[in-house]
Amino acid sequence: MDDPRVPRHGQDTLPGPSRLLIAGLLTGVVDGLFATVQNLLSGSTPARLWQNVAFTVLGPASFEGGARTALIGLLLHFGVAFGWSTVFFLLVRQSARLRQVLAKPSGIIKVAAVYGPFIWLVMSLAVIPLLVQRPPNITGRWWVQLIGHFPFVGLPIVASIAWPLLRRRPAAA
């Protein structure tokens, strides 16, 4: 009897919700570490980093809340990681063409190289400026974030969700 969990030859294999959970957690951790290291190298503290994230919803009070507002910022960070992971998860579920690209060995890298920087552009040029009511500040650090969003955001999201597609490619006939 056929195992329903194993796709038949040529059948699309869609990622399940567990892939979404992995993508959100992995992205939150990897990007969080990247941002923390970048913040430390600029002479600041991890608490200040996460208070800056909390600033988007709490405003100036985020800098007066100590560990509590830093934790709020960290939770917001993971919420954003899960949000963008969900967007990608839904895109993969809806697009046979995207699944075809991702099923190729180089597909994950190619898609992550676009998706990660896309996330940074949307967040830094639209979402955050709308929330804090000021234009983006494009500095050297902004560019580091843009480039870093490929390996530290795009790659964890895309690889986590697309991994089943790559592993279950149909054998050559």
**Please, what is the average pLDDT?**
90
- Number of helical regions: 6
Which class do the helix and strand fractions yield?
Answer: mainly alpha
The number of distinct structural domains comes to 1
Low-confidence stretches: 1-12
Number of strands: 0
Oligomer: single chain
Overall body shape: elongated
Measured on Cα atoms, how large is the radius of gyration? 18 Å
Q: Percent helix among the residues?
A: over 70%
How far the N terminus sits from the C terminus, by CA atoms, comes to 23 Å
Major sheet, described briefly? none
Q: Tell me the fraction of residues in β-strands, as a range.
A: under 5%
- Give, in order, the helices and strands: HHHHHH
Topology:
Elements: H1 17-41, H2 46-58, H3 66-94, H4 96-102, H5 107-132, H6 140-167
Explain how this protein is built.
It is a single chain. The chain is mainly alpha-helical and 173 residues long. It has one domain (17-167). It is built from 6 helices and no strands. The longest helix is centred in the middle third of the chain and has 29 residues, at 66-94.
